[in-house]
Specification:
By secondary structure, the protein is mostly helical. It is built from six helices and four strands, in the order ααααββαββα. The strands form two sheets. It has a two-stranded antiparallel sheet. α3 runs parallel beside α5 and α4 packs across α5. The radius of gyration is 20 Å and the shape is globular.
């Protein structure tokens, strides 16, 4: 069973966090299906997930990383990745549809008229576009945990770790160890 280290950030960050360091948590269609289950309610149900869907999601993720890096630094985005993201959006255009909601009132939803792979990629590319144009994009942080590369958008400006109970605890334990081991050597 695949375990995703950080879910619940903006969807684009959740996608980027499926590739921590050298690992790829979306290494097969089953892993993608598991990630989509974790993201339930944030994406249109994908149905059967195969190689085409996996390739489409990876293409969005590959374009998103360099684009987000540039946006965080306030720089011009790389042209190749920008063309790739825009191509993905164009391949699965969204149309808005008025629906009657479960609460007894009207609502608006986006629908994409494309095959499952393009639709899924289009939804994720739209999430990336939303993050890139969000005024808070410069606040996206990389976890300060040793060796951790997960990204998050902090609700609290003092947040330093992706998950305080994991990376934060590791940092605290490491500081404790250094303090106490250093003190023991001095007293010997």
């Amino acid at each position: 069973m695949v375990s995703f280290p950080l879910v619940g950030e903006p969807l684009a960050l959740d996608l980027l966090n499926t590739r921590p360091a050298a690992a790829d948590l979306l290494d097969d269609p089953g892993a993608l299906a598991a990630w989509l289950a974790e993201e339930a309610g944030r994406l249109e149900p994908a149905g059967e997930v195969g190689e085409a869907e996996l390739a489409a999601v990876r293409a969005v993720r590959e374009a998103a990383g360099p684009l987000l890096d540039a946006a965080r630094r306030g720089e011009r985005p790389p042209a190749r990745e920008l063309r790739a993201l825009n191509g993905i959006l164009a391949a699965a255009p969204a149309r808005r549809e008025v629906v009657w909601g479960e609460q007894g009132g009207p609502g608006v939803v986006s629908r994409r008229g494309a095959d499952a792979a393009r639709r899924l990629a289009g939804e994720l590319a739209e999430a990336v576009a939303e993050l890139l144009t969000d005024p808070r994009v410069g606040q996206v942080r990389e976890c300060e945990g040793e060796g951790c590369v997960l990204l998050f958008l902090p609700a609290n400006p003092r947040r330093r770790w992706c998950v305080a109970s994991v990376c934060g605890n590791r940092a605290r334990v490491a500081r404790y160890y250094v303090r106490h081991k250093g003190g023991a050597q001095e007293g010997e």
